[in-house]
Write a structure and sequence with these properties.
The chain is of the alpha+beta class. It folds into two domains: 1-57, no CATH class; 61-279, no CATH class. It contains ten helices and eleven strands. It has a four-stranded mixed β-sheet, with no helix packed on it. A three-stranded antiparallel β-sheet has the order 1-2-3. It has a two-stranded antiparallel ribbon with strand order 4-5. The longest helix has 19 residues, at 2-20. The structure holds calcium ion (2 copies). Keywords: Endonuclease, Hydrolase, Nuclease, Signal. Residues 168-188 are annotated as: Disordered. Pfam families: Endonuclease_1 (PF04231). GO terms for molecular function: endonuclease activity; hydrolase activity. InterPro entries: Endonuclease-I, His-Me_finger_sf, TAT_signal.
Length: 280
């Protein structure tokens, strides 16, 4: 069966990734995928989902809450491979692939499926959106937070421009071709289907970047006028979005692909969205 072959390849890839990342190799139990049957139409997502959150990845967080949990997660997710900004293009073609069309990526804010080859900077292209706006902490695009694909997503060039470096909040008027996203003078509200995705990307960045290695300590706060300070708002709204829009198969597969094939670290809040409330 093709699905079995795919699963075996993924299993080998995961084992290799785990060795590279210094992790214990997870048990490769074909029957451990859980109660949900794979969807034939999306064998690749099913194959990857079978290996979410390998045993041992979160060792050390047991019983911890609040700042202790945050510190433990920082240690875990900081063990990662880092990409160059040019390598991000090909990575996003994989992590954000349209499950219904392997020649396309899904654009984050608009929800549009667009050709992988239409990457660039012109009208009609897609580009590399920093969900944690790179001016918030001024970390740029050298290898580090500016190339961390946990928060880099394909977006329509013009929609990306509308979002700019605005903080996140509810309200505003419709963004042209924004798939239901809204904006006003100082904030951006993504479409409902990715509100939780956006929130969990912000929370990942806050845990991953704690002021080490010369990078700023990124944190969410309750402002929408953060400018170049290393903060993103609004925390209360992001927490609501995390609750309203729990992780789905696309987001979970994306986390697995980043873990297996690129950075070899995970977004803890995709695996455990309940940890947001423990920390913030
Ligand atoms: Ca979602
Ligand atoms: Ca931080």
């Amino acid at each position: 069966m093709p699905a079995v072959r795919i699963r075996r390849r993924k299993a080998v890839a995961l084992a290799s990734a785990a060795v590279l990342a210094g992790l214990a190799v997870p048990a490769l139990a074909p029957g451990s995928a859980g109660a949900t049957a794979p969807t034939p139409a999306d064998a690749r997502t099913a194959a990857v989902a079978a290996y979410a959150a390998p045993d041992g990845y979160y060792d050390g967080v047991e019983g911890k809450t609040g700042d202790a949990l945050k510190s433990a997660l920082n240690s875990i997710v900081s063990d990662q491979t880092k990409l160059s900004y040019s390598a991000v293009w090909d990575a996003l073609k994989d992590t954000d692939e349209d499950p219904s069309n392997s020649g396309n990526v899904i654009l984050l804010y608009s929800g549009v499926s667009r050709s992988k080859s239409a990457n660039g900077g012109d009208t009609g292209d897609w580009n590399r959106e920093h969900v944690w706006a790179k001016s918030h902490g001024d970390f740029g695009t050298s290898t580090g937070p500016g190339t961390d694909i946990h928060h880099l997503r394909p977006t329509d060039v013009q929609v990306n421009s509308v979002r700019g470096n605005k903080d996140f909040d509810n309200g505003g008027s419709a963004v042209a071709n924004g798939g239901g996203s809204l904006t006003d003078s100082d904030s951006f509200e993504p479409r409902d289907a990715v509100k939780g995705d956006v929130a969990r990307m912000i929370f990942y960045m806050a845990v991953r970047y704690e002021g080490a290695d010369g990078w700023p300590d990124l944190e969410p706060n309750d402002s929408v006028n953060n400018g170049s300070a290393p903060y993103i708002g609004k925390l209360a709204v992001l927490k609501e979005w995390n609750e309203q829009d729990p992780p789905d198969a696309f987001e979970q597969r994306r986390n697995d692909v980043i873990f297996e094939s690129y950075q070899h670290n995970r977004n803890p809040f995709v695996d455990h969205p309940e940890w947001v409330e423990s920390i913030w």
